[in-house]
TrEMBL record, chain A:
UniProt source species: Devosia riboflavina
Name of this chain's protein: Cytochrome C oxidase
GO molecular function terms noted in the UniProt entry: electron transfer activity; heme binding; metal ion binding
Residue stretches making up the Cytochrome c domain: 44-184
Keywords recorded for this protein, A-Z: Heme, Iron, Metal-binding
Coiled-coil parts of chain: none
Higher taxonomy: Bacteria, Pseudomonadati, Pseudomonadota, Alphaproteobacteria, Hyphomicrobiales
Keyword check for rRNA-binding: no
Database matches in Gene3D superfamilies: Cytochrome c-like domain (1.10.760.10)
UniProtKB/TrEMBL annotation, chain B:
Cytochrome oxidase subunit I profile domain segment(s): 1-535
Record-annotated membrane-spanning stretches: 6-28, 82-105, 133-152, 164-184, 196-220, 232-253, 265-287, 299-321, 327-349, 370-387, 407-424, 445-473, 493-514
GO CC terms, sorted: membrane
Keywords: Electron transport, Membrane, Respiratory chain, Transmembrane, Transmembrane helix, Transport
GO biological process: electron transport coupled proton transport; oxidative phosphorylation; respiratory electron transport chain
Pfam families reported for this sequence: COX1 (PF00115)
PANTHER family: CYTOCHROME C OXIDASE SUBUNIT 1, CYTOCHROME C OXIDASE SUBUNIT 1 HOMOLOG, BACTEROID
Protein name: Cytochrome c oxidase cbb3-type subunit 1
Molecular function terms, GO-annotated: cytochrome-c oxidase activity; heme binding
Length: 209, 535
C-alpha cells in the first residue's frame, strides 16, 4: 500500500462492479418489461399535482409501494396488491418512499376517490382524524368572505370552519387532489412482473413464484 | 429467470469472496506492504510514546506547554491552517442551522399545527433541509477539513495549491445555501439524499474538484514511501464520492424503479464510501496520535479497508427490500450487508484495542473521548445495519422510525462524534491558542451523549412497536401513529439536548477565534515555514 495509482484504480474498479450489480443489470431487467397493461400515463393536471406532491415532501411520510401479502397485511388494509416494477414507468422522480408515518398512497385514489374529502383533509387533517399527525396545508387554500363563481369551497366540520367566510381551494390544491385521485394501480399485475419475492412461501416443489 | 438470478448472485458473491481470499493471501505473503513499522508513519522519529493532546485537563505541564514534536511539523500545518479553518467554520455554521431544522422537524411530528402557515416550513421541506445541511454542509465540509489537515501530516508534505480549497469552500458554501433555498421554496429533484437540484449540484461538483486536486497533488508529491491507512480511506473516498455524486445527479436518464435503485445505490454509498471512510480514516489517525502509540495491528487495517470497499459498495438495495425490485438484487444487498461484519470487526479490533490498552488517555482527553466513542458507535451502527438488513428483521423495521434511529447512529453517533473530537484536537494547533474554557468541551460532550442516548433509544424502541403494529392486521393503522407519540416527544427532548450541545460547541470555537491573541496562553506557532521532510 505504497502506491497511489493502483489504490485508486482498484477502488474505482470495485465501485464500477457495484454499479454494474446494483444499477446496470437490474436496470436492464426492469427495462425489458413493458408497462403494466392498465397503467395510464399521467394527465397534465396529474403531473402538476405530482409536482406539488414532490415539492411539499409527501414522500417523507408516505410510501408508494404496497408489500406482498406473504410479508405484510398491506393489501388487507386497502393499500392494494404488491406493486411491480412496471407499475412505475411514468414516475420521474420516483416516489417509492422509505417511511410510513402515514399510510401507503399508491392506490389512494381507489380507496378515497372523493375530491371533497381530500380537500378537507389537506386543509386540516385533524378535522377528519383526531389522531392524525399530518401537517395542515392552509397555504394551499384561500380564505374569502364569500365564494365566487367557479370557486371550490372546502367543507369543514364545526369547530374547524372559518370564523368569517369560506375556505376556497387554490389551483395547487386542486391539482394535488387530482393526482391523489389518479393514484390507482388496482389493475392486475402480469404474472412474470418484477418485484422482490423474497418473502414468498415456496410451493409444493420448493420453488418460489 | 431463476437461473440468471442464481448466476448473478453467485458471480457477485464469488468475486467478493475471491477478492477477500486474495487479500488475505497477499497480506500473509507480504505482497502488500503493511507492516507494523508502517504504523509509525504518523510519528516523527522519537515522537512515539509521547501523548499529543493540547486539551488534556488538569495537567498544567501538557495543557500549557508546547508539544515538543509539533515544532517539526509546524511548517506543514502552517500552510494548511487557513484552508482548514475556513472549511471548519463553514461546517460548524451548517451544523447549527441543520440542527435547528432537525429539531423543528422533530417537534412538528407531535405538534402538527405548529408553523403550518408557510410552505417553506412544512414538515416535508424542513426535514429535507435538515438532512441536506448536515450531510453536505456539516459532515462533508468537516470531513474535508480534517482530510486537508491530516493528509499533509501523514505525507510529511505541505498542502499543494492551498488557495484552491479556500475558493472551493466559498463555492461549496454557496452551493449548499442555494440548495437550501431551493428546497425551502419547493424546487427539488425529489429523491431522498438527492434533493438539491442538479443545476446547483454542478456548483457543488466544481467546488469538490477544488478540494480533490490539492489533496491528490499533495499525495503525489509526498515525502514518505508508505501511505498510512488514513490515507487509503481518504484517497479512496475522494475517488468514490465525485463519481457517485455526478452519476446519481445526472438528470433525465432514469425513471421509476430503475431510478430508485440508482437513488439507494447513491444514498447508501454516501454513508459507506464517503462519510464512513472520512470518519474511520480520521479515527485511524487521531487515536494513535493522541495516545502516542501506533494502532494495535497494522496488517488488519488492510482487511478492514478492502473489505469495506468490496462489501459496503453493494448494500444499497437493502432500502428496497420487499419492494418492486428484482429479488436477486435485494438478496445481493442483504448478503453484502451481512458480510460487512468482516471489515467492521477488523476496524473494531484495531481501534478499540488500541484505546482499551490506553484508557488513561480517554479519561484525560476530551477529543479522544469523542473520537473513541465515535469509533465504538461505528461498530455498533454497522452491526445494527447488518442485522437490520436480514429479511425477518427488516420486515418489522422498514418504513419505521427505527431506520431514522439507525441513520443517526451512523451519521451522528459515529461520524459527527469523530468530527467533534477531531475539531477539538485540531483547533488549538490551527490557531496557536488554548480553549478559553476547557470545561465547556466536557459540557458539550455530555449534552450530546445524553441527548443522543435519549434520541436513539426512543426511536429504536418506538420504531419496533410501530413496525409490529403495522404488521398486525387486528390493529388499525391509526394505532401505529398514536403509539408512537411518547417516543416522538422523547426524540424532541433528546434532539434539544443535542442542539444545546452544538451551541456550546459553536461557542467554544467562536470564543477561540475571536479571543485576543494576548489572552491566549499557548505560545504562537513557530515562524518557520519550511516544510518538514522525512523519508
Amino acid at each position: 500500500m505504497n502506491r497511489l495509482l493502483p489504490l485508486s484504480i482498484v477502488a474505482l474498479g470495485i465501485l464500477a462492479f457495484a454499479t454494474l450489480m446494483l444499477v446496470v443489470v437490474p436496470g436492464m431487467q426492469i427495462r425489458s418489461q413493458s408497462p403494466s397493461p392498465g397503467l395510464l400515463p399521467y394527465t397534465q393536471a396529474e403531473l402538476r399535482g405530482r409536482e406539488q406532491y414532490v415539492s411539499l415532501g409527501c414522500l417523507y411520510c408516505h410510501s408508494q409501494q404496497p408489500r406482498a401479502s406473504d410479508q405484510a397485511p398491506d393489501d388487507q388494509r386497502g393499500w392494494g396488491r404488491a406493486s411491480v416494477a412496471s407499475d412505475y414507468v411514468y414516475d420521474q422522480p420516483h416516489q417509492l418512499g422509505t417511511m410510513r408515518t402515514g399510510p401507503d398512497l399508491l392506490n389512494v385514489g381507489a380507496r378515497l376517490p372523493s375530491q371533497a374529502w381530500h380537500l378537507t383533509h389537506l386543509l386540516q387533517p385533524r378535522a377528519i382524524f383526531d389522531w392524525s399527525i399530518m401537517p395542515a396545508y392552509p397555504f394551499l387554500f384561500e380564505q374569502k368572505p364569500a365564494a365566487e363563481p367557479g370557486d371550490v369551497v372546502v367543507a369543514l366540520p364545526p369547530g374547524y370552519a372559518a370564523q368569517n367566510g369560506v375556505f376556497v381551494a387554490s389551483q395547487q390544491a386542486l391539482d394535488l387532489v387530482t393526482y391523489l385521485q389518479g393514484l390507482d394501480r388496482t389493475y392486475p399485475a402480469l404474472p412474470d412482473a418484477v418485484r422482490d419475492d423474497g418473502y414468498a412461501e415456496p410451493d409444493d416443489e420448493g420453488r418460489k413464484p | 429467470m431463476s437461473v440468471t438470478i442464481g448466476l448473478l448472485l453467485s458471480l457477485s458473491f464469488v468475486v467478493s469472496i475471491a477478492a477477500l481470499a486474495f487479500l488475505i493471501w497477499a497480506i500473509a505473503n507480504h505482497q502488500l506492504s503493511a507492516t507494523q513499522d508502517n504504523a509509525y508513519t504518523i510519528f516523527t522519529p522519537g515522537e512515539a510514546g509521547a501523548p499529543d493532546d493540547a486539551a488534556f485537563e488538569g495537567e498544567p505541564d501538557t495543557a500549557h506547554g508546547e508539544h515538543h514534536f509539533d515544532v517539526e511539523r509546524a511548517g506543514i500545518d502552517k500552510i494548511s491552517r487557513l484552508p482548514v479553518l475556513v472549511l471548519l467554520t463553514g461546517a460548524v455554521f451548517w451544523l447549527i442551522l441543520g440542527s435547528v431544522f432537525g429539531l423543528t422537524a422533530s417537534l412538528k411530528l407531535h405538534w402538527p399545527d405548529w408553523l403550518s402557515g408557510e410552505a417553506a416550513l412544512t414538515f416535508g421541506r424542513v426535514r429535507t433541509l435538515h438532512l441536506n445541511l448536515v450531510i453536505y454542509g456539516w459532515l462533508s465540509l468537516a470531513g474535508i477539513g480534517v482530510v486537508m489537515w491530516i493528509v499533509p501530516r501523514i505525507f510529511h508534505t505541505a498542502l499543494k495549491y492551498p488557495k484552491l480549497p479556500i475558493i472551493g469552500a466559498g463555492l461549496w458554501n454557496l452551493g449548499v445555501l442555494a440548495g437550501a433555498l431551493a428546497i425551502a421554496s419547493g424546487w427539488t429533484d425529489g429523491e431522498e439524499w438527492l434533493e438539491i437540484p442538479w443545476q446547483i449540484d454542478i456548483v457543488l461538483a466544481v467546488a469538490g474538484s477544488f478540494f480533490v486536486v490539492p489533496i491528490v497533488a499533495t499525495a503525489v508529491a509526498r515525502n514518505v514511501h508508505h501511505i498510512y491507512v488514513s490515507g487509503w480511506y481518504f484517497l479512496a473516498a475522494l475517488c468514490w464520492f465525485p463519481v457517485l455524486f455526478v452519476i446519481a445527479n445526472f438528470p433525465f436518464i432514469h425513471s421509476g424503479v430503475e431510478e430508485a435503485t440508482v437513488n439507494w445505490w447513491f444514498a447508501h454509498n454516501v454513508l459507506g464510501l464517503w462519510l464512513t471512510p472520512l470518519g474511520v480514516g480520521a479515527a485511524y489517525y487521531f487515536i494513535p496520535k493522541i495516545i502516542g502509540k501506533p494502532i494495535y495491528s497494522y496488517s488488519l487495517s488492510l482487511l478492514g479497508f478492502w473489505g469495506l470497499a468490496l462489501f459496503y459498495s453493494q448494500v444499497g438495495i437493502h432500502h428496497l427490500i420487499g419492494g418492486p425490485v428484482p429479488t436477486w438484487v435485494a438478496t445481493l444487498s442483504i448478503v453484502h450487508s451481512v458480510m460487512m461484519f468482516v471489515p467492521v470487526i477488523a476496524v473494531a479490533v484495531n481501534q478499540h484495542v488500541t484505546v482499551a490498552r490506553n484508557w488513561w488517555a480517554v479519561r484525560q482527553s476530551v477529543p479522544l473521548r469523542f473520537i473513541s466513542l465515535g469509533a465504538v458507535l461505528y461498530t455498533a451502527a454497522s452491526f445494527q445495519g447488518s442485522i437490520e438488513a436480514l429479511r425477518t428483521v427488516n420486515t418489522v423495521t422498514h418504513f419505521t422510525q427505527y431506520t431514522v434511529g439507525h441513520a443517526h447512529l451512523g451519521a451522528y453517533g459515529f461520524v459527527s462524534f469523530i468530527m467533534f473530537g477531531a475539531i477539538y484536537h485540531m483547533m488549538p494547533r490551527l490557531t496557536g491558542r488554548q480553549w478559553p474554557w476547557p470545561g465547556l468541551l466536557n459540557v458539550h460532550f455530555w449534552f450530546v451523549v445524553v441527548g443522543f442516548a435519549i434520541y436513539f433509544v426512543a426511536l429504536t424502541v418506538g420504531g419496533v412497536f410501530q413496525g409490529l403494529a403495522m404488521l398486525d392486521i387486528t390493529r388499525p393503522f391509526a394505532y401505529s401513529v398514536t403509539l408512537l407519540m411518547p417516543y416522538l416527544e422523547a426524540r424532541s427532548i433528546g434532539g434539544s439536548l443535542m442542539t444545546v450541545g452544538h451551541l456550546v460547541f459553536a461557542f467554544n470555537i467562536v470564543a477561540m477565534l475571536v479571543m485576543k491573541p494576548a489572552d491566549a496562553q499557548r505560545p504562537p506557532a513557530p515562524a518557520s515555514t519550511a516544510p518538514a521532510t522525512e523519508s
